[in-house]
Design a protein that fits this description.
Elements: E1 8-12, H1 18-22, H2 34-41, E2 45-53, E3 59-69, E4 75-79, E5 84-85, H3 90-106, E6 109-114, E7 121-122, E8 131-132, H4 134-145, H5 169-174, H6 178-189
Parallel strand pairs: 4-6
Antiparallel strand pairs: 1-2, 2-3, 3-4, 3-5, 7-8
Length: 204
């Protein structure tokens, strides 16, 4: 039995403890939670939850699949900010992507769109600050070799900026370029809309 054969896949439309299960997986996002599925349900999307486990019954991959009815019984499938898995694991990556394709075909889905939160690189492209992310680059190779196509209709933001908010406001401003500091302070003077954020907790 191969390593791929030891991976177990289950599906559910009403999972128990889904949010707690996915919280430990790489790339866990609010867009993969039961709450997001409930939001999308108002727009006619039906949720299907896929969970991959190893032979020790430990979750190693997951995907909230949103299904939209089309014409003649066909469907459109979308996995927002997913699937969730260790993208550096070649066997797991190939198994999950293949499972998604095969399951979509069996359920008359003529399109399946995935949108994992996996950077292909870090820094600003075409500058000295940029360096590729091996896992992201490997996924691009997998896409090209297995028939996936880039979608010009991007739903989620293509780029993200992460800022450590532990330092004081003064230290954060001091680390910025002069023009960035100017824009931040100008926004404050103009009373630009802002809101205090709260920690995101994945829970049912």
């Amino acid at each position: 039995m191969t390593e791929s054969d030891r991976i177990l896949l289950t599906f559910s439309e009403t999972p128990v403890g889904w949010n707690e299960t996915i919280a430990s997986l790489f790339g866990a996002s609010i867009l993969q939670t039961v709450e997001w599925a409930a939001v999308k349900a108002s727009g006619g999307w039906r949720a299907l939850y896929a969970l991959w486990k190893n032979d020790s019954q430990k979750p190693i991959g997951a995907a909230l699949i949103l299904r939209k009815k089309l014409f003649l019984g066909f469907e459109f499938w979308y996995v927002p900010r997913g699937p969730l898995l260790d993208w550096g694991n070649d066997v797991l990556r190939n198994r999950i992507l293949n499972d998604l394709i095969q399951t979509a075909k069996k359920n008359n889905a003529i399109f399946i769109k995935i949108d994992p939160d996996l950077p292909v690189g870090f820094g600003v492209p075409d500058t000295e600050s940029y360096h590729p992310n091996p896992a992201g680059q490997k996924l691009l190779e997998t896409y090209r070799g297995s028939g996936w196509l880039f979608s010009p209709q991007q739903i989620q933001f293509a780029n993200s900026v992460w800022i450590d908010l532990e330092p004081s406001e003064e230290d954060l401003l001091a680390a910025m370029k002069q023009r960035t500091r100017y824009k931040v302070r100008l926004a404050g003077k103009k009373e630009s809309p802002s809101a205090r954020g709260l920690p995101l907790i994945l829970t049912n």
